[in-house]
Structure formats: structure tokens, C-alpha cells
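Hi there, hope your week has been kind to you so far. For a while now I've been wondering how a particular protein folds. I'm sending you its amino acid sequence along with the C-alpha cells. Could you read through the record and tell me how the C-alpha cells relate to the sequence? Take your time with it, there's no hurry, and the full record follows here.
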Amino acid sequence: MPIPAYKSDFLESCLSANILTFGTYTLKSGRQSPYFFNAGSFNNADLLSAIATAYAHTIVEFLATHPTVPQPQVLFGPAYKGIPLACCTLLELRRIDPGTWGKVKYSFNRKEKKDHGEGGGIVGAALQDTTVLVLDDVITAGTAMRETIEIVKKEGGSVVGFVVAVDRMEKMPSENDDDGVPRPSAMGQIRKEYSIPTASIVTLDDLIQLLRLQGDEKDMERMQQYRNRYLASD
């Protein structure tokens, strides 16, 4: 099955700007990853437009395929990388469908609460009694997702979904990471624990297909080996 145009355009932007690179990278978990994705490098208007377009199409598709998910009233971007993602994506969603998205708000958290001025730990829209869709870049251990759920809950809102740029599709790390024991991914665990649906612009399988289409046999083989070694049970 061919990669949808919005995904291929997104991946092309990632490759041209070295946001997505292939090689050998040590992750926080200690794993040696054959690829690296750095959402912080979406740092000019063209690149922001590319990722906003990809997120917007992913969100529209996500809501269409999950009819029980209520229309989000707030897009939430966890500090720090999620902040520009939520803002620029909301603008793109409004451009695509102003009737649906024109009055939707954005919000993000402060890392440190402010004790002067307006105060508090939230910037942008208040979350009380709202349905919240969270945007982030990449989820690995799931710690940030849990923190975000608790932040939104404490503010009186309800997280109705998570959308990330890349789903690594790999099982959560363990003390003995090469134990061969099946484990879910961080996103899969969140879905199970909180019954919150998730979506991503691209997955590890999309990256492998991209390399296949490019005829890059060496990197494709390394990616496939990594997938086989760490593929999540979900």
C-alpha cells in the first residue's frame, strides 16, 4: 500500500532538513537505534507548515476513524516541544475547516508554576470541563504522557486522544532489555491503562517502507533488524 501524500510530504521535509536521520544513536533507554527524529529542528516557517499540515490531516483522519471520540475543544501541547506543535496545527486545522476548528482553543503547561500576574501552571485556554486532544513529538517510556494526563485531569479537563509525530512501535524498556519477553509499547500501555485512543503521523513501518521505496537496502535492513528485536506486543 502506498504512503499517503501527506505522510510522504512530511517524510520528505524531515529528510531534507535532517530532522529524520539514519545511523547509530544511543537512546535514553540505552538502546542503539538506527534512526533519530528531532522535532525541535522544525524551526522555520516552511518546516512548521509541513509538520502542521501532517498533524492536521492525521487528526482529521483520527476523528473520522474514531467516531466515539468527541470533538476536541482544546489542543494541548506539553512543554516544551509540544507548544509550537499545538499552535501551528490548530491554525492549519482552521484553514482546512474553519467551521469546525475556528473556535477550538490551545493550551500548554508551564514547567514551573507562576506565582505572579495571572499565575498558575497553564497558559492559554482553561481546561475545566473541556475535551482535550494532546499533541507531542515522540513517545518512548510513556512518562510524559502520564504526566500530561494528570495535568489535564487536575485542571478539570478530559484527555480524549494523543497524537504524536512518530510511533516507534517498540516495546517499553526493561532492566534486561534483551530478555525476549513480549511487552507493549508506551502508547499501547496508555491505551490499555486509560482507554485513551492514540494516533501518529508515521510509524516505524512507514520509515521502513520509505527506505524500501528509495532502494536503501542497508538502512532498511538495519531498521528491520531493530523492529524484529524490539517490536511491541500491541
Remarks:
- The CA atoms of residues 150 and 159 lie 9 Å apart.
- The helical segments are 5-16, 45-65, 82-96, 98-101, 143-154, 186-194, 204-214, 217-230.
